[in-house]
């Protein structure tokens, strides 16, 4: 669930199946932004993704987004049910030249499920996702592309909106959990998840993929993630590992990775190692999902002290990631290192109907949103993901 998406990244993804670099270039202003969209940078490669994350984060803090924001996202959907990264002219029917992808579709399905009132759109999106499930049970970024841990995990979040056990959604004999298990490494290699095999079939530990896969393997998602009660113990190989076993091992890997400096580290070719803010936020969610809020204290505290400039530079998706991390980690998004993350997020888009950080069940939006969600027969969601290889 990273914010680093650019033209170069997308081109590389399509060409060689690799993922985003560790640090994005500063967002470039777009001269004609669509009404209702969050953020001021060019939406060509991340419009649906960042809009979805923004709506998910606002839902999590019980803030009702502007109708224009929801309508913009819903209007991006193609007749097939799929979503592209950005659809410049929603009035024009989608054609073969418009590339749709699993990540945008899964994130949008989850966001629309959360805000309620879009049950048909969510069902169409999930139906399309099922139609492009790979034979190994997983999903790649593009339909038919090799399965990767990030895409499979964000799609798991979308599947959860239909109240159908994810383990029963199969292509032949394989479920999404089978795909994740195939990408999990043994303890001798750290117990992490790989993004996907390289050309020789080798798996390499990837912190970004691990953070996503831990949540997916636990059968949880970003908005409804519950603090776990299992310790992030040392990696343990099982004769016949379950998704829960793989999640525990992945969490142990992440705990070790952040133990020294409080954050995950990444590097661009030819540059020095540097903090990876987005993946660290994802790791907080994964650690909390497995071992409870105490397990995420270290990296969450580091983000509280160091992420303000990164979030300001990267905009709505970054603020959304931090909100999801603070909620999962038991912190207050309205006072995160002296910053009101919700206020910062809402300032990047159309004014919300309400923007309350009150977590009580008496929140108007909470009651309205919950009622709509129940009426539409839809559930909670995940969010997720980019594709990038990281040592």
Q: Can you tell me about this structure?
A:
This protein has 391 residues and is an all-alpha fold. The chain contains 15 helices and four strands. It has a two-stranded antiparallel ribbon. α4 runs parallel beside α6, α10 runs antiparallel to α11 and α10 runs parallel beside α13 (316-328). The relative contact order is 0.18. Mean pLDDT is 85; it is low at 4-31 and 355-391.
User: In DSSP terms, counting alpha (H) and pi (I) runs of 4 or more, how many helices?
Assistant: 15
**Oligomeric composition of the shown chains:** single chain
Strand order of the largest sheet: 1-2
In whole angstroms, the N-to-C terminal distance is: 18 Å
Question: Shape from CA axes?
Answer: globular
Sketch the topology as an H/E string, one letter per element. HHHEEHHHHHHEEHHHHHH
Q: How large, in whole angstroms, is the Cα Rg?
A: 19 Å
Structural class, by secondary structure, is mainly alpha
Helix content: 40-55%
Overall pLDDT = 85
**Percent of residues in β-strands:** under 5%
The count of DSSP E runs of length 2 or more, i.e. the number of strands, is 4
Major sheet: 2 strands, antiparallel
Uncertain ranges: 4-31, 355-391
Q: How does the SSE layout of this entry go?
A:
Layout: H1 7-16, H2 47-60, H3 67-74, E1 83-84, E2 100-101, H4 102-115, H5 119-131, H6 149-159, H7 176-182, H8 207-217, H9 243-259, E3 264-266, E4 274-276, H10 277-291, H11 297-306, H12 308-314, H13 316-328, H14 341-346, H15 364-376
Helix pairs in contact: 2-4, 2-13, 4-5, 4-6, 6-8, 8-9, 8-10, 9-10, 10-11, 10-13, 12-13
